[in-house]
Design brief:
Blueprint (H helix, E strand, L loop, with lengths): L1 H51 L2 H34 L3 H6 L4 H10 L8 H13 L4 H14 L1 H10 L4 H25 L19 H33 L2 H9 L1 H15 L6 H7 L5 H10 L5 H11 L1 H26 L1
Helix pairs in contact: 1-2, 2-7, 2-9, 2-12, 4-6, 4-8, 5-6, 5-14, 6-8, 7-8, 7-12, 8-13, 8-15, 9-12, 11-13, 12-13, 13-15, 14-15
């Protein structure tokens, strides 16, 4: 019996060492690859701009590189935190901590996004898993909206994207949490069970180890969200360079039109919440309330989230929930922005 215990401890120790080594190798390789890409791009980009002899190309590259270089470290940090939480924090912890009353469980679940961060891509399956474990749908949906919007990584990234503007961080936290709680309460009051298709557990997930879940979550979050960051940075740079200043003045002249424009742009760009603050900051032609709306709407309503929600909870749910969330996020951004900014 003692030999079996010793062998078991050796096996667990070997697994821990293997996981540590694999994680370290992946982080080093990823960092080296990222450094190589940034170095090559930093050298070739200006050369290409000089060869083309077009100042707009150089300006586009400057904006694109700045957004990507600023956003990638927070994207990697967010992916590490999200993968760690997903692999180590048991889902049953929510059912133990949340009140039984949906009216009380909604704000508690919304506030849990502060200590349990994750990207918006991961929040949909997490919310579905919570519902399977008996958490009230209203509370699970509040967590779905708040986790990618108010976690520490996102708030720190926002503070660095808007230096010297601490109220922008406060406004983003307040408007995002208010939207998440409001949507949870709206679902608890008006939601119908026939609108929501409860998800089923994937068959392959039952045999996945914690180490495998961590590595898979890290790879998915970083690579998947990194692609959207690059697309968002390219779209933001193109928007800054291609849109004529006269046309931009038409939109920025009216604060209402500028808010609606950036709220719609957030839906289309699908930028990860851990890097969208840098994209918003690059849209310097717009006012702070419009930039706030971009950061509040993006983690809650965009095209990839709509597809994930439709596949997990049903298309009928996704249509209703996304449209009401968009309106609520815009209203919350305007009210909080008018109050704090």
């Amino acid at each position: 019996m003692s030999d079996q215990k010793y062998t078991g401890r050796q096996g667990r120790l070997a697994d821990a060492v293997s996981l540590t080594v694999r994680t370290g190798v992946q982080v080093l390789l990823g960092g080296f690859a990222l450094l190589t890409i940034v170095t090559v791009a930093g050298v070739l980009g200006p050369m290409l701009a000089l060869d083309l002899y077009t100042p707009p190309v150089a300006a586009w590259w400057t904006v694109f590189t700045a957004v990507v270089v600023q956003g990638v470290p927070f994207l990697l940090l967010g992916a590490l935190v999200s993968a760690t939480v997903g692999a180590l924090v048991p889902e049953r912890a929510f059912t133990r901590l949340l009140p039984r009353s949906p009216a009380l469980a909604v704000p508690v679940a919304g506030a849990a996004g502060v200590v349990l961060p994750g990207c918006e891509c991961a929040s949909v399956p997490v919310a579905g898993s919570l519902m399977r474990r008996g958490v009230a749908p209203a509370a699970a949906l509040a967590f779905l909206l708040s986790a990618p919007a108010i976690n520490p990584v996102v708030l720190i990234a926002t503070s660095l994207a808007f230096p010297g503007q601490p109220m922008m961080v406060v406004a983003r936290f307040t408007a995002s949490l208010a939207t998440a709680v409001a949507m949870g309460w709206l679902w608890a009051r008006f939601g119908r069970t026939e609108w929501l298709r409860l998800p089923t557990r994937p068959a392959a997930a039952s045999g996945t180890s914690r180490a495998g879940a961590f590595v898979a979550g890290l790879q998915h979050d970083f690579l998947h969200a990194g692609g959207f960051l690059v697309l968002g940075a390219a779209a933001a740079a193109t928007f800054n360079i291609a849109v004529p200043r006269a046309l931009l003045d038409v939109f920025t002249a009216s604060p209402w039109v500028s808010v609606l424009l950036l709220a719609l742009l957030a839906v289309v760009l699908c930028v990860c919440s851990e890097a969208d603050a840098f994209v918003a900051a690059s849209l310097s032609g717009f006012g702070p309330v419009a930039q706030l709306a971009f950061m509040v709407v993006g983690p809650m309503v965009d095209l990839k989230l709509f597809a994930l929600q439709a596949g997990t909870f049903g298309r009928e749910f996704a249509l209703r929930f996304s449209s009401v969330t968009w309106v609520t996020a815009v209203v919350s951004s305007v009210l909080v922005g008018w109050w704090l900014l």
